[in-house]
Design brief:
The chain is an alpha/beta fold. The protein folds into two domains: about 5-125 and about 235-285, D-Maltodextrin-Binding Protein, domain 2 (3-Layer(aba) Sandwich); about 125-235 and about 300-310, Periplasmic binding protein-like II (D-Maltodextrin-Binding Protein, domain 2), CATH 3.40.190. Helices cover about 40% and strands about 15% of the residues. It has eleven helices and 13 strands. Strands 2-1-3-12-4-13 form a six-stranded mixed sheet, sandwiched between helices. It has a five-stranded mixed sheet with strand order 8-7-9-6-10, sandwiched between helices. The chain has a two-stranded antiparallel sheet with strand order 5-11. The termini are far apart.
């Protein structure tokens, strides 16, 4: 038998630890049924800084249209961090969550997440991470980040931390040693803000978040260049708690498959990651495809994360 990858070993350990420590009552806790008295609790990762006016507004029209079509009632909230969203789902405090792929795999390994839907844009359900640099920083490739100031997002973020770190490692750069400064900015928008204000020379973020920042005039694209672009990554998934009833799961999947046809929502209001316009959603999703995406994170071990956090704290 082949040894498990670093990511799989880590996720398995997380799942076993959770199973050993959490009371059985947590796992037996009944999920909400979507009624007015027990609305389906939706928790979203804070992709745009965790503000109610950002991420929540991107998804409210979709859930409102699904509510109108199905009679299901939803209560949307934005988590304070990526890990907080995982914990909400795994403690039974949430019924539906929107994750990054890395966060989803953590929750899946702990037995508290099941794929619901992915956004579709131009016939695909993928997005890209990148490392962007200020043009005046004279950085055109990853190796030139040595001695520079860089910003990264939440440690559990797929495209503002894990993929940028993996790309640096693949290029032979040690992100905990080679940059002069590592700024753990906490979110994509904060990474891009630090870049726009000249606080750092380069930063990791998704192309969707970069596009949104450009459209909002929060960053000047003429003053920033792309120095690395990732391979395609599955879009951040919507997931359900496995303990939701089969009829509710079926109703949710059907609604997301047809959200672009539902009354009460316009094409302009169908949004995805980073607030970008998407064509719709598909519930025809593969757990195997998401698991395969986990291979992209294998280089980013617990030790790598710890070393970067230590660097960022100035130790």
């Amino acid at each position: 038998m082949k040894p498990l990858s670093t990511l799989r070993r880590s996720l398995l350990a997380l799942g076993l630890a959770a199973a050993a420590l959490a009371p059985a009552a947590v796992f037996a806790q009944a999920q909400h049924d979507g009624s007015r008295s027990k609305p389906l609790r939706v928790v979203l990762i804070p992709a745009d800084g965790g503000t109610e006016d950002g991420t929540r507004k991107d998804f409210q029209p979709i859930f409102s249209a699904i509510s109108q079509a199905t009679g299901l009632v939803f209560d949307l909230k934005v988590g304070q961090s990526y890990s907080a969203v995982v914990e909400a789902m795994c403690s039974g405090a949430a019924d539906i969550a929107w994750y990054g792929p890395a966060s989803y795999l953590q929750a899946r390994a702990r037995g508290c997440a099941e794929l619901l839907a992915l956004a579709v844009r131009n016939g695909e359900s993928v997005y890209y991470s990148g490392i962007f640099a200020r043009t005046e920083a004279n950085v055109s490739k990853l190796s030139e980040l040595k001695g520079k100031k860089i910003a990264l997002g939440d440690v559990n973020s797929t495209s503002s931390f894990n993929i940028p770190v993996a790309m640096m490692l693949q290029a032979g750069l040690n992100p905990a040693r080679d940059p002069a400064v590592v700024n753990m900015a906490g979110s994509h928008s904060n990474v891009l803000k630090a870049l726009a204000e000249g606080l750092v020379d380069a930063g990791g973020a998704s192309f969707d978040s970069f596009e949104k920042a450009v459209n909002a005039k929060a960053i000047d694209p003429t003053k920033v260049r792309v120095i690395a672009k990732s391979s395609p990554i599955p879009y951040p998934p919507l997931a359900m708690h496995p303990q939701l009833s089969a009829p509710i799961k079926a109703k949710l999947r059907d609604a997301f498959n047809n959200v672009h046809k539902l009354p009460g929502i316009s094409k302009e209001q169908i949004r995805g990651y980073g607030g970008g316009k998407v064509d719709g959603y598909t519930a025809k999703v593969s757990e195997q495809d998401m698991a395969n995406a986990g291979k992209m994170f294998d280089l980013v071990t617990h030790q790598v994360r710890a070393d970067i956090m230590k660097k960022a704290s100035g130790q």
